[in-house]
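Posting for a labmate who doesn't have an account.
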Amino acid sequence: MAVQIENLGSLDRKMTLEFARADLAKAREARLAKVGKTMKMAGFRPGKVPKNIVEKQYGMQVDFELQFDKASELFFEASQKEGIKLAGQPRLEPKSELNADKVVFDAFFEVLPDVKIGDFSKAEVTKYVTEIGDAEIDRALDVLRKQQVHYHPRGEAGPHGDGGSNTAAQNGDQVVIDFVGKIDGVEFAGGKAENFEYVLGEGRMLPEFEAATLGLKAGESKSFPLSFPADYHGKDVAGKTAEFTITVKAVNWPHMPAVDDAFALSLGVTEGGVAKMREEVKQNLEREVKRRITSLLKGEVMDKLNDLCELDVPKSLVAAEQERLVEGARQDLMQRGVPNAKDAPIPAEIFAEQALKRVRLGLILGDLVKLNNLAATADQIKAEIDEQAATYEDPKEVVRWFYSNPSRLKDIENLVLEDNVIKHFTSLAKVNDKSISFEELSKLN
């Protein structure tokens, strides 16, 4: 057996493999005997077909398979012996005739690149700082209250009052209306409805429509022009002006539950009342703050790593990543119920830039982890799982769920590994703390 390795470029290599066809004689005889045991042919019982007939029908196929198997075996043996860091599977090409005494294959492959790690001390990143106080807790509680909003007719006394003396429609009110729209005096499809219900101020209707409804009382009507935007989803009316007439059937004012022990109980807080509820809301907000700040810092660190490190990227790894992204997109379409998603044409080229960046970062992270001993430890993985499980009603069951599936456990391991890289990077780079409000933080991508 002989092996020659040729450098074809920065990462491309060619390995020439040679071996004697005679080396495969025993394996060839055994393979043909195995085929003969199951071969069926008219006039012969199963397993009794003569060897010369088996040879004639399957000899070339067996030669082809055995030679490729042998070439593959020799390639990986040589790669291990030479300490070659393979970037992917080789492409094997036979260079000799199938019945040649000396079998020759060329194996084309890529090697993993050397990563030139930059000087992290020259980098600057921003770490956001956000404090959670009473104002943030109050806003979060208002959101939760709005989720339990219910409506009462304006002006009618009820268990929660009458909504005030002003019975005209106001922002936040739920209105029930009849409406009809005409273009050039003719009604159009979708321009008429009865007992149509919506909440003013939520932006569900076009601004002119909401403006015309504001201030009307139950039983009142109003006519007004409405210009549809040129990009309106209804193509038949896009860019046109219609004359609408609306009649208000009902005006209902919103009632949100008070922040009391009953409200806390409705949110699952069985003990401690309002104080306990506020404490839990604060803990949830702080977890959200931590998640967002970590995500933003991670994104900035990864961009800096991409800029600071130099390497050639194996084409085979990028192509493989593109295919994974295509398959992920296809699975997403299928889960959404998109017709024929399984066979939908999704060009891999649209993921080229994303795949390149992922592969680059993967190679950079791999080198950083090895050079600086940043691999995730069992204790770190357990701590991360425990922290995520703490947000659920039954943490022990969630912990069991993570540990019962290697794929889920691997995801946690990768998450911890990335955290280790971020900590390593920020220990060397200049980190600028920046205080921002929770609302500002929520708007950042």
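Reply:
Got it, the structure tokens are right above this. DSSP finds twelve helices and eleven strands in the chain.
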